[in-house]
């Protein structure tokens, strides 16, 4: 009997370990070590070349952390879209440079960087909300695509420069390489701004986006993110100015109109808000559900404020169907409005 009891106890402990160990593993900080390399060519600067090696190492770490994010989200049973995985992985990492070297080989300078990335799973769910609130996933995807495009273009330019024999042609190619470096710098600063948003360091994020704009005045994404941050800090005039800039640079981009419309609604300029929000949906009717839900909720508030109750209820219903709890609350309170009570003047927060 003692032998049987011992076997049962061992079996019980084994089962508990099997069930419990995954939770322990996912609750602890994970360490990722990765390396990046870059070969500097003629016309490039050492600072940017080293930055490209560091970026290479970071992207390897982010890919590994992305696998971790997917596993963690499945275990915790919270939804995360595919386009949010890498930006979330980037946000929950803290990167430290362990070592870096420059070596000369075959008339070229090679840069090597080794980093350690600590992944903190306890930050994941909070950061996932911030990603959606700020619309970071779409911008991160664009930065990733732009980086990959830039890498291909810079390699092609280096080949062209090596083959060029005419001085004028060489100057033109070097100028293009310099422009590529400016674009890379702007992207790095934008990426820094996104990371700061995810850690809720808003003032520092505004500074990072301002630096990105200084490096690339045509970066409408940086204007858009800075505008949202200004709105969150109730610096409304600055927010409107930045949204205007987004529309000026990219008139077919929905986010400029959506952001400005939400801000107008918050200011009480409801007719302007309605015009901008409808324009945003016209430009991007297939926007992410959370973004459409916010636009419809704000439209509902502005329609109601201008006395157009039927359109307000339709907008609230659409927003509620898309998962906006505030809009659902507005629908529930609507019978009181019909009996003559003063409508609640809620304001959609810009986060």
Structural write-up:
The protein has helices spanning 2-27, 46-76, 82-91, 124-134, 136-163, 167-198, 202-215, 220-232, 236-249, 254-267, 270-283, 289-305, 309-321, 325-332, 334-338, and strands spanning 30-40, 93-105, 108-119. It has 351 residues and is mainly alpha-helical. The chain has 3 domains: 29-126, Helicobacter TNF-alpha-Inducing protein (Thiol Ester Dehydrase, Chain A); 147-217, no CATH class; 253-351, Tetratricopeptide repeat domain (Serine Threonine Protein Phosphatase 5, Tetratricopeptide repeat), CATH 1.25.40. The protein has a 3-stranded antiparallel sheet. Helix 7 (202-215) runs antiparallel to helix 8 (220-232). Mean pLDDT is 82; it is low at 6-26 and 336-351.
Strand content: 5-15%
Tell me which CATH architecture of the largest domain applies here.
Answer: Alpha Horseshoe
Would you identify the regions where 5 or more consecutive residues have pLDDT less than 50? 6-26, 336-351
Overall mean pLDDT score?
82
Please tell me what the overall shape is.
globular
> What's the arrangement of strands in the largest beta sheet?
1-3-2
The CATH homologous superfamily of the largest domain corresponds to: Tetratricopeptide repeat domain
Structural class based on helices, strands and sheet pairing: mainly alpha
- The CATH topology assignment of the largest domain is Serine Threonine Protein Phosphatase 5, Tetratricopeptide repeat
What is the string of SSEs from the N terminus onward?
Answer: HEHHEEHHHHHHHHHHHH
Helix content: over 70%
Number of helices: 15
Distance between the termini: 64 Å
Largest sheet at a glance?
A: 3 strands, antiparallel
Roughly how many Å is the radius of gyration? Answer: 25 Å
